[in-house]
Design goal:
Order of helices and strands: EHHHHEHEHEHEEH
Largest sheet: 6 strands, parallel
Strand order of the largest sheet: 3-2-1-4-5-6
Oligomer: single chain
Distance between the termini: 12 Å
Number of strands: 6
Strand content: 5-15%
Number of helices: 8
Length: 195
């Protein structure tokens, strides 16, 4: 059995980072505050344009890529591996789809981050935003995801564990399993794939 795992918002707490660091940056530089705490990205959270968003990420991306993994993600990925699951990291992390120096650097940063956070994986796939085709081609049996579009598309094909956040509360369906922590994910996977 193959489990696909997203990074941003699943292995990391993207939501908290954007709200905390975004609030500081927007307040100090543009006298802006949160306009939609339930939005997925900083453009919509702060109602800003892409130019301001680029300025924010140019300063805060180096900090974000060093954020620690969510609590117990390391333990659970190792437990799943020890129980015979294959773990595929499937990420659309910013820049990783580029074949230039910045893309190579970000892919290395991701791999180093996974290692330093003791996240077990068998394979890593740097993907475009739409992950359905990747899941199909890689024969993924279950995906752990946080992004609404991906959850809705992938859940029509395979079960999706939706890592709970404000921005994905609208995701519901028979193939969508909402989880709130890594040990909650472990319990739900154990239940889905009972031996």
């Amino acid at each position: 059995m193959i489990i696909g795992i997203d990074i941003d918002g699943v292995l990391t707490n993207l939501e908290e980072f954007q709200l905390d660091c975004g609030s500081k940056f927007m307040s100090e530089n543009f006298n802006k505050s949160i306009t939609d705490a339930n939005a997925y990205d900083t453009i919509d959270i702060f109602n800003i344009n892409s130019e301001i968003d680029d300025k924010f990420w140019s300063i805060y991306l180096p900090l974000y890529v060093k954020e620690p993994a969510r609590k117990y993600a390391d333990e659970v990925t190792i437990k799943l591996h020890n129980e015979g699951f294959q773990i595929y990291i499937i990420t659309a992390r910013y820049l990783t789809d580029r074949n230039d120096e910045k893309g190579i650097e970000m892919r290395k940063t991701v791999i180093d981050w996974l290692k330093s956070n003791n996240i077990y994986y068998d394979k890593i796939i740097f993907s475009p935003e739409d992950k359905l085709d990747i899941c199909k081609k890689a024969n993924v049996d279950l995906m752990i995801e946080d992004k609404v579009d991906n959850i809705n598309k992938i859940s029509k094909y395979i079960p999706v564990i939706c890592f709970d956040s404000k921005y994905n509360k609208i995701c519901q369906g028979t193939n969508i399993i909402r989880c709130y922590s890594w040990y909650d994910i472990y319990a739900k996977i154990s239940n889905i794939f009972k031996k």
